[in-house]
Amino acid sequence: MRNGKLYLYIVVILAVFCGPGNRLIVSAEEISGLESLVLREEYAEGVNCGKKLLNQSFSLNKRRKIYYLTGLSYLKLGSSVKAKRYFKKAITKKADSITLNSIIGIADAYYAEKQYLDAIKRYDYILSKYKNTGHEANVCYKLARSYLRTGGWRDSKKYFRRTEKRYPLSFESGLARDILKENAFYFTVQVGSFGNSLNADKLCRKLKKRKYPVFVDKVINESITFYRVRVGKFNTKKEARLQEQKLKKISLPTRIYP
To answer: Is the pLDDT of residue 191 over 90?
Structure first.
């Protein structure tokens, strides 16, 4: 009877602290529970759980892991500034997986903010500092993408080729191969994207009459074909912006790529 009351007491306590309104993990698997939230892409819950765990006492390495997972949750939610703050707290002089993943997280946060030069600096550091980690293909590809965004065409091609050749079995290798095949190493101004080629051709003819260097770029995304109407192939973003201003004057929607 006494054991039965004890069991009932434990059940009540767990119900209070682990009910739907309180996703608080109170077992010896606290950090594993946080990892599970992140893996299930429940990032808002991950942030809340991480903050609660940081109010408890843990060893340095466990706290670092919590900081990293909380930062990752913030990054996935689009809060790059907060993400960087937590990633930085997870970094130590120890070159372990937590430090590596946190530096990658900071680089990704800069990329998300379109701070591509800051992202390049960190991706380049990771490739030079860390070897045989399993992250090389992903980091190399992101470095190539960052150079692409800044107009560093030569370096962009270099790292796309490296991604393709050195890591042929990686997912990123296929992406790099497609980009190299497309050979779109220039800035351009997009003025429309259509699912119907006739609409794209109509806009293209209109702009050609005005002497714009217009072209239609056909792309297939998840079995759906798009016809993107673009103007110019420029070596610098400054040139693309000048063209963009002219197109805005004739009331066209514009966006510079990449």
So the answer is: yes
17 and 78 together in one domain: yes
**Residue 217 in domain:** yes
Same domain (yes/no): 163, 211? no
pLDDT digits (tens, 9 = 90+) for 80-124: 999 999 999 999 998 899 999 999 999 999 999 999 999 999 999
Q: Which two tokens stand for residue 91?
A: 């970094």
- Predicted TM-score (pTM) of this structure: 0.80
**Do residues 180 and 157 make contact, with C-beta atoms less than 8 angstroms apart?**
yes
Structural domain boundaries enclosing 71: 12-113
Instruction: Give yes or no for a contact between 196 and 227, defined as CB atoms under 8 angstroms apart.
Output: yes
Helices (H), the chain: 2-18, 30-39, 43-53, 60-76, 80-90, 97-112, 116-129, 136-150, 153-166, 171-182, 197-209, 237-248
Asked, for residue 87, whether it belongs to a domain, the answer is: yes
3-class DSSP state for residue 43?
Answer: helix
Give yes or no for a contact between 174 and 180, defined as CB atoms under 8 angstroms apart. Answer: no
